[in-house]
Amino acid sequence: MPISRQDALKAIQIAKTLIRLNGKHRDMSGPPDPDRTAYGVVICVSGAACILLLYMALFGRRMRRTAIRWHVMNCSWWGILHLASYGSFAEKAPWPNYIISPEWTDSSKQVENFSRSIFPCGMFFVYIEVMITTCVPRLADNWIFNLIFFILVIPVLNIIVLFCFFAQWMAVEWFYTPVDFLTLLTYVLFCIMTAVYFLFCLFGSCLCCYTVASKKPQKRTVFTFVDMWLLFPYALIPDIMYGPSFGMTSVQFVFKFLYDWIKDSGLLEGGGDTTFVLDLMTAALNALPWFVLFFPLVQAMLAVVCIKMFRQQFFFLLSCGRLYNGPALPAPKLSKDWASKSKLMTSEGF
């Protein structure tokens, strides 16, 4: 029976996969690498943190319909995908043979890029929502307002990211790989919005002083501004951890589009010592894989520490339901309840 061309191509692809796996097995046949073991431990712990965060975001009774909830949910499930891919295709991957899909193998870098772009892109919308609700607190319980940010953070954001990922297979000649350009654009927007939000926090601090000094009842309380400031480290620390990854992507972009301009401008000339810059780049490259591994875990820890509803839900789970055993409070009462006991909640009728 003659073999069709399609069957022959499949056989060749299977043979290539077996050869690749055989080579990886030979690489792993030596003494165990402690870095691989550490990678595996961190991936497992980070994955468990993502699953816990996803569970709280989906089913937590203290969860409110806000952009930060949808953002954490989105980061959690894409973070799990990112860890799964990194565990198979990283330079010192602990399980280099458990993903055998040729398509995934060829696109592993793009998968890691777009899954890392979820956090900065989602925080862009979270910043906007928090600034609006800090100025106009009554919008926090407006279902139309909440629906708008749900659509922006979940469907719109994911459609954009997936489009950029699959655009590399379209019959279109892009000036730059879409998913890599998305990584650059989202990080730049993220940094700009982080600076804008910091300025807004300074303005909010002045507004907080007015709120404290005012004798009239205010819709905003001191805890409103405490939560406003707590969002800043939640975004800033991952921003710093995300930096080396962005730097690797930006170097390729700079060399492709800006190198000639930089060379002609004379910025590379002069007698300055570049040792410090080279040492800094070397340290960033060495830290890159560890930042990538710890990013989901750090993001989960910061969500519990810095975001009120996740903090309350975590204590609910930790205390087996003895703390924060009621549903989420409406915005006016929530602003006055930063870390109260369950007795206070039951006295409110919950």
Automatic annotation (TrEMBL):
Q: Which segments cross the bilayer?
A: 38-58, 143-172, 184-210, 222-242, 287-307
Q: Which keywords does the record carry?
A: Membrane, Transmembrane, Transmembrane helix
| UniProt name for this protein | 7TM GPCR serpentine receptor class x (Srx) domain-containing protein
Q: Which gene encodes it?
A: Acey_s0230.g2936
